[in-house]
């Protein structure tokens, strides 16, 4: 079974995932980094060339490849839960852990300028957060409140997972 970490951009999926995998002796995989490797383009480039729908198709393909493996800790892209088929893929191959972090904590000191879903001022972070929060909660097997520093949060998450 894989552990899929979902949540908003900047909530700590990659940081916590890497620390958690290290503690568990598991392999860590960052989905966005995997997409960039496979496509040979940055996420903003993919969005610019293929739009969000094109990106989501690539994301589903990469997620399907990941789901064929076992024992991974996976930091998912923030929008992976927007497609029901992605949620099904994750549920069939592991458990979904929503990393819940307050928007004000996420925004504190974080540069959102390179985030394609916030491009050109079309959507604000708060709008995206408000839309996605109920989806994260509904699709998660476990909701984990990320309120501490990364080391403490990873230990708490590891304890929750009984590592």
UniProtKB/TrEMBL annotation:
Annotated compartments: Cytoplasm
Pfam families xrefs: SKI
Catalytic activity: shikimate + ATP = 3-phosphoshikimate + ADP + H(+)
Cofactor: Mg(2+)
Residues that coordinate or bind Mg(2+): 14
Enzyme class: transferase
Keywords recorded for this protein, A-Z: Amino-acid biosynthesis, Aromatic amino acid biosynthesis, ATP-binding, Cytoplasm, Kinase, Magnesium, Metal-binding, Nucleotide-binding, Transferase
GO cellular component: cytosol
Annotated binding of ATP, by residue: 10-15, 115
PANTHER family: SHIKIMATE KINASE (PTHR21087), SHIKIMATE KINASE 1, CHLOROPLASTIC (PTHR21087:SF16)
Physiological role: Catalyzes the specific phosphorylation of the 3-hydroxyl group of shikimic acid using ATP as a cosubstrate.
Subunit structure: Monomer.
Protein family per UniProt: Belongs to the shikimate kinase family.
Name recorded for this polypeptide: Shikimate kinase
Gene source species: Guopingia tenuis
């Amino acid at each position: 079974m894989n552990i899929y970490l979902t949540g908003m951009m900047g909530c700590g999926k990659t940081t916590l995932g890497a620390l958690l995998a290290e503690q568990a002796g598991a392999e860590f995989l960052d989905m966005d980094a995997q997409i960039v490797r496979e496509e040979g383009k940055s996420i903003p480039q993919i969005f610019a060339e293929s739009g969000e729908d094109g990106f989501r198709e690539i994301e589903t393909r990469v997620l399907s490849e990941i789901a064929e493996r076992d024992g991974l800790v996976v930091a998912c892209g923030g929008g992976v839960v927007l497609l029901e088929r992605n949620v099904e893929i994750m549920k069939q191959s592991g458990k979904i852990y929503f990393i819940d972090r307050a928007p004000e904590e996420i925004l504190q000191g974080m540069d959102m300028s390179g985030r394609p879903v916030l491009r050109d001022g079309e959507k604000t972070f708060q709008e995206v957060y408000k839309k996605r929060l109920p989806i994260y909660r509904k699709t998660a097997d476990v909701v984990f409140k990320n309120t501490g520093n990364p080391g403490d949060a990873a230990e708490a998450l590891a304890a929750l997972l009984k590592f």
